[in-house]
Predict the structure.
Amino acid sequence: MTSAAAPARHVVEQACSTVGLDSGGAEPLRLAENQIWRLPGRRVIVRVAPEGQSAAAAREVRVARWLARKGIAAVRVIDVEQPVQAAGRPVTFWVDLPPREHGSVEDIARLLAQLHSLPLPDIDLGYLDPFVRVGERLQAATTIRDDDRKWLYGLHRDLAAAWAERPAGLPDRTVHGDAWPGNIVRTVEGVLMMDLERFSVGPPEWDLVSTAVRARTTGAVSEHEYAQFCATYGYDVTEWEGYRVLAGARELRMATYAAQYAADNEEWISQAQHRIDCLRGRSGPRPWSWRGIL
């Protein structure tokens, strides 16, 4: 057991006891901001969120139940009263998935079209904040230079102002908030949505921008794949006059995410700096080659 896993194991044991689950043999799958544990043989995933995230955890459970009622393929919560509090941290319980792989651009477009076609739910989702945790990530980014940090703070301010004055677009809908292939996955049971943490009400363009940025900014999606994405969804967000504002916000999120994790893992320092250099015009025009941060 790693030192990072040890404190959370106590949380998992306490939370499982609260809802009547046996935590024996719990396996840590991912020990990051949100810790993910599996209860072997029970098809249960235990998700331990950071302190202070109780409202977000409760909203995620409500979203999962709403999606189930609407017939949208997504991860499901198990039938216990949740979230529960354990050692000050909110804990939720989910049905474990069979082996999975990243969804295709068409998978993403198809599920997003279904989601965006729904009327707004009668649950409080809050309005989309495309800059959530950006400030905290910059504070945590101890490996970047002061001049780069100052520039990124300025970019954050400029984009936030532009977001507030963005052009009109598609009508607000329920949005996933982080619709990339790691969160729209394919299993033997079909394609489904994962990671419901960022669900909110907002412009559907925000969900579409994720794939557009992977095509136009990072080069992870080919032009042919992007054309398939647009044809499946029925709309090309890059033709909207507000695209650069939302794409800029997504790029900023991706750069600050890398910078935050570089502070704890030197393997990502060069990638974090590369992303900043690209945004600052030091690496030529888009598309750039950005490696994934795990």
